């Protein structure tokens, strides 16, 4: 792994906090992407956040382009979301019994997402994809599933094969502890490869329970599906009786209110959600056609449960977030600012003579240090990680917090202004011009 050629710009309190954390938690973190492993150095420790900004232990302010890896589309600590959380907390933090608020959030999700007629709330994106795969296998009575290299669906054993995101970054596409048995029925294909997909369905179609994909990939950096690819995934699964699952944990309520399926006009059989749907609290969801979802216990026989599922505090945060997104949709503004940032970063890289690609859908994007367009994991893997690390640290020095891996998409929020986008482009111009 290449190491950056710049001095890490992390304050002394963050460095000390990381040292302490490393003696207490594996690698000092509770999720690997946070450790800055891909860019070398010690991570910022965050004290608080407001709107588009993060504040670290050393009192430094950063313009945040991670947004908690996706959820914070309204900006941090949105007053109405905070108020809803506080009010819910006062009424008790968990009952283990049904509430009307859960039906409220379910209604919002069903109304927003074209493929969802019935939904089940869970606690994370991982739980959503794990459960959706089980349901697809349960309803079809089949065992095989298809996933794409560089797509990440959480740390589900059967899906931890050539997963993107931190698995890609850390070079552990197959984790120790995941047995051959768990992945034996997972067929791995290349994203955007219509021919490979078609041939696989010709050979194995009748045995494939589910095809799961990120309908815009965030987890190998931002990679955009071709319309042909999504259309082929839809028609091949329909013919074969395979359940098509869109993993919209990242894209749901992000690339459009109704997710990528609304944006691209392709409706899957099932959808998984996380991140924005929980408004920054631990909440995920999976749903789909009623005929599929009604086979989940206790309506049907497929087991899936959770002590904290539908937790009232998380539901309050998610429900308030969706209400605000619907009342005052930020999507046109995010699109406009996204285009402005993509153009600005592209121009800055061109002016610096750096081979690059900017790939963007609305408010998610990646600046790839790569000569060729990125359509799949093999393309992404050829990006220049050492240049990315220099870029990352240069931006940190200028108070801009970008995702700490070439293989992550950046996200921004409705609280990011045009002036902040322009400030980001100016910083990137300086940083890129200095890259060796
Ligand atoms: N699916 C996608 C597309 C994701 O991006 C992620 C997380 O980044 C997950 C699933 C897993 O979600 P969680 O981290 O909430 O378990």
TrEMBL record:
This protein's source sits in the domain of life called Bacteria
An annotated GO cellular component of this protein is: cytoplasm
User: What pathway does this protein act in?
Assistant: Porphyrin-containing compound metabolism; protoporphyrin-IX biosynthesis; 5-aminolevulinate from L-glutamyl-tRNA(Glu): step 2/2
Localization of this protein: Cytoplasm
The cofactor named in the record is:
pyridoxal 5'-phosphate
Key words, A-Z: Cytoplasm, Isomerase, Membrane, Porphyrin biosynthesis, Pyridoxal phosphate, Transmembrane, Transmembrane helix
Q: Where does the record place the modification N6-(pyridoxal phosphate)lysine?
A: 275
> Quaternary form?
Homodimer.
Q: Which PANTHER family match?
A: GLUTAMATE-1-SEMIALDEHYDE 2,1-AMINOMUTASE (PTHR43713), GLUTAMATE-1-SEMIALDEHYDE 2,1-AMINOMUTASE 1, CHLOROPLASTIC-RELATED (PTHR43713:SF3)
Query: Which family would the database say this protein is a member of?
Result: Belongs to the class-III pyridoxal-phosphate-dependent aminotransferase family. HemL subfamily.
Protein name, entry field: Glutamate-1-semialdehyde 2,1-aminomutase
- Protein source organism: Novipirellula artificiosorum
């Amino acid at each position: 792994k290449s190491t950056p050629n710049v001095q890490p710009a992390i304050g002394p309190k963050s460095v000390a906090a990381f040292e302490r954390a490393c003696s207490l938690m594996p690698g000092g973190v509770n999720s690997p992407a946070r450790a800055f492993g891909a860019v070398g150095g010690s991570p910022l420790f965050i004290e608080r956040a407001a709107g588009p900004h993060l504040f670290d232990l050393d009192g430094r302010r950063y313009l945040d382009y991670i947004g908690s890896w996706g959820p914070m589309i309204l900006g941090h600590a949105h007053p109405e979301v905070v108020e809803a959380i506080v009010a819910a907390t006062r009424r008790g933090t968990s009952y283990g019994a049904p509430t009307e608020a859960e039906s409220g959030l379910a209604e919002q999700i069903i109304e927003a997402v074209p493929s969802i007629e019935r939904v089940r709330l869970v606690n994370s994106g991982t739980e959503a994809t794990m459960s959706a795969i089980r349901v697809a296998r349960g309803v079809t009575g089949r065992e095989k599933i298809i996933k794409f290299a560089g797509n990440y669906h959480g740390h589900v054993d059967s899906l931890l094969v050539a997963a993107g995101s931190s698995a890609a970054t850390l070079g552990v596409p197959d984790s120790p502890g995941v047995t051959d048995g768990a992945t034996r029925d997972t067929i791995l294909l290349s994203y955007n490869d219509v021919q490979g997909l078609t041939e696989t369905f010709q050979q194995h179609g009748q045995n494939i329970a589910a095809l799961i994909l990120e309908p815009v990939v965030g987890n190998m950096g931002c990679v955009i599906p071709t319309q042909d690819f999504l259309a082929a995934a839809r028609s091949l699964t329909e013919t074969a009786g395979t359940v098509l699952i869109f993993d919209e944990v990242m894209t749901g309520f992000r690339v459009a209110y109704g997710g990528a399926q609304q944006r691209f006009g392709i409706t899957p059989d099932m959808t998984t959600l996380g991140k924005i749907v929980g408004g920054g609290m631990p909440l995920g969801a999976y749903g789909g056609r009623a005929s599929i979802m009604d086979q989940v216990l206790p309506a049907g026989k497929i087991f899936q449960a959770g002590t904290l599922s539908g937790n009232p505090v998380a539901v309050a945060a998610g429900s308030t977030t969706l209400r605000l997104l619907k009342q005052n949709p930020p999507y046109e503004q995010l699109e406009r600012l996204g285009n402005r940032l993509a153009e600005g970063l592209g121009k800055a890289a061109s002016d610096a003579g750096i081979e690059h690609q900017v790939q963007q859908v609305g408010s998610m994007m990646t600046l790839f240090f790569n000569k060729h367009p990125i359509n799949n994991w093999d393309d992404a893997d050829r990006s220049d990680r050492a240049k990315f690390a220099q870029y990352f640290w240069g931006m940190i020095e200028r108070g801009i917090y970008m995702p700490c891996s070439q293989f992550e998409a950046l996200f921004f929020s409705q609280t990011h202004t045009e002036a902040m986008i322009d400030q980001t482009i100016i910083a990137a111009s300086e940083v890129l011009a200095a890259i060796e």
